[in-house]
């Protein structure tokens, strides 16, 4: 997405869902079943004769082969045939965007999983695709919500997905583009559709553990899959015995709040015990989640039975502490090596390279400030905060709070030079030790769309602090960005002192400044 979109908007509920469904676990209507469903009894009765000028009159044929990938290619920009009505799959009633159809013969017999993707080098990344899957080319599916595949993930605008069909049947992929593709995107173009099918098999689950580690979920499961294609763990979080946590922020806690996390290195194994650790969006790490239903899914989205477990949130350990990553966990930035929490080289190198910000010691009752320009790099980083997802690259600074205070330490990116870049800002007393984080802020004023960050450490202890600045983890790209950081030391005044009512130049230790004078301390 454009840099402005990236920096000014938080993901919507539907985009959260797209990010969560990285395995494409959606299904289709008619005789196409969503993952976990039973096959419908037969194909709907429809007129097989398509109008001569319809895209359905000249589909691209693709014959599936069991347990093998196949592909078809085309270019919607070259299509001169009339498009079919996609219903609500695109902008309501919009049929102006060119389409092409692939008629895919499902291999084998019985219930079969089908996985398809346009995310490949045959489909330009700029092509904002939409795919509708049908059991009859001329018939608009009744279940539009489960037959329409738009963005493959939060940042990927090409389409992919999974569904189940009966071996021997023909299914139709209607390939088109988004009528409003956005900056740098197109609605028509070349494409390559890759399809893989295999006999469906349902995974099983034997045990599960879910642990919150800062903003990450650490999930361990054991189970099996006779098809040897288990690929992920599905988690449905609860905030009490019966209430589902509203992961996608749609105002309703329901089955749509299940989140899928990929399980690496399981494909090819019929029985396994594996773990996955992944940054958890949707505030799953907020402390409200107390339990979860956990299941294993395969590459087609077929699901095991669910088991319910309590969600653990242990105290995390810093450098040189003992660990086993089962009960005693290191903080996320650290590694557990030979049962000791160690600082990775990338973390120590970043700390060594931190830029020192020189700031004058306040003289009397007047605040001192220093402003530092910086460029947030593109890509991912190695530090983790506690207040929000922070997978982006970081820039580190050190600042000294002098003796002789007390002083408040303030820092902000909410400056004119930062513009609308969505930042995260946090402070530690030890750069290499995440357990020393003092404060963290994502958005200074989200209610008023201020997505820059501000932190305040009141009466900060004298010593060195590391300030970490980065792009919000789900800020689309992230792109490099030039911003500013302002750091201030604000004197904290005792009762009777002259003070600033606005608390900009100074602050009273024992209450709000009133008529220019600090109040007496409240009696205890």
Automatic annotation (TrEMBL):
This is Lipoprotein. Residues 1-27 form the signal peptide. It comes from the Bacteria. The keyword Signal applies. Keywords: Signal.
């Amino acid at each position: 997405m454009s840099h402005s979109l990236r920096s000014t908007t938080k993901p919507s509920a539907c985009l959260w869902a797209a990010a969560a469904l990285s395995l494409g676990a959606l299904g289709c209507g008619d005789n196409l079943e969503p993952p976990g469903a039973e096959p419908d009894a037969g194909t709907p009765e429809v007129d097989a004769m398509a109008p001569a000028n319809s895209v359905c009159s000249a589909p691209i044929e693709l014959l599936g082969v069991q347990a093998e990938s196949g592909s078809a290619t085309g270019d919607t920009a070259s299509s001169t045939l009339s498009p079919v009505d996609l219903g609500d799959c695109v902008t309501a009633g919009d049929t102006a965007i060119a389409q092409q159809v692939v008629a895919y013969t499902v291999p084998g017999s019985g219930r079969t999983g089908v996985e398809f993707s346009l995310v490949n080098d045959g489909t330009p990344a700029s092509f904002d695709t939409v795919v509708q899957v049908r059991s009859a080319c001329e018939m608009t599916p009744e279940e539009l919500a489960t037959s329409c595949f738009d963005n493959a993930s939060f940042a990927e605008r090409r389409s992919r997905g999974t569904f189940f069909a009966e071996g021997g049947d023909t299914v139709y992929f209607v390939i088109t583009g988004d009528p409003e593709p956005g900056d740098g995107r197109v609605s028509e173009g070349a494409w390559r559709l890759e399809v893989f099918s295999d006999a469906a098999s349902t995974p099983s689950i034997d045990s599960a553990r879910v642990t919150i580690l800062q903003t990450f979920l650490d999930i361990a499961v054991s189970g099996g899959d006779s098809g040897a294609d288990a690929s992920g763990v599905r988690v449905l979080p609860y905030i009490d015995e019966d209430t589902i946590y509203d992961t996608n922020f749609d105002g309703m806690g329901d089955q749509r709040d299940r989140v899928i996390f990929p399980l690496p290195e399981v494909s090819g194994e019929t029985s396994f015990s594996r773990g996955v650790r992944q940054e958890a969006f949707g505030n799953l790490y907020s402390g409200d989640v107390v339990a979860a239903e956990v299941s294993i899914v395969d590459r087609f989205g077929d699901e095991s039975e669910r088991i319910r477990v309590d969600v653990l949130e242990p105290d995390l350990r810093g450098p040189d502490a003992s660990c086993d990553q089962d009960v005693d966990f290191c903080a996320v930035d650290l590694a557990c090596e030979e049962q000791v929490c160690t600082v990775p080289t990338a973390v120590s190198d970043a700390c060594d390279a931190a830029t020192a910000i020189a700031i004058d010691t306040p003289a009397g009752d007047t605040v001192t400030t220093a402003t530092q320009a910086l460029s947030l790099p593109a890509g991912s980083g190695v530090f983790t905060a506690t207040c929000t997802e922070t997978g982006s690259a970081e820039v580190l600074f050190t600042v000294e709070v002098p003796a002789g205070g007390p002083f408040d330490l303030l820092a902000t990116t909410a400056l004119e030079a930062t513009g609308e870049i969505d930042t995260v800002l946090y402070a530690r007393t030890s750069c290499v030790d995440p357990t020393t984080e003092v404060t963290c802020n994502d958005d200074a004023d989200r209610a008023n769309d201020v997505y820059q960050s501000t932190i305040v450490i009141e009466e900060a202890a004298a010593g060195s602090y590391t300030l970490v600045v980065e792009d919000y983890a789900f800020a689309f790209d992230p792109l490099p960005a030039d911003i500013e950081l302002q750091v201030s030391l604000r004197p904290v005044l005792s009762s009777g002192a002259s003070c600033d009512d606005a608390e900009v130049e100074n602050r009273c230790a024992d209450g709000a400044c009133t008529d220019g004078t600090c109040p007496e301390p409240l009696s205890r």
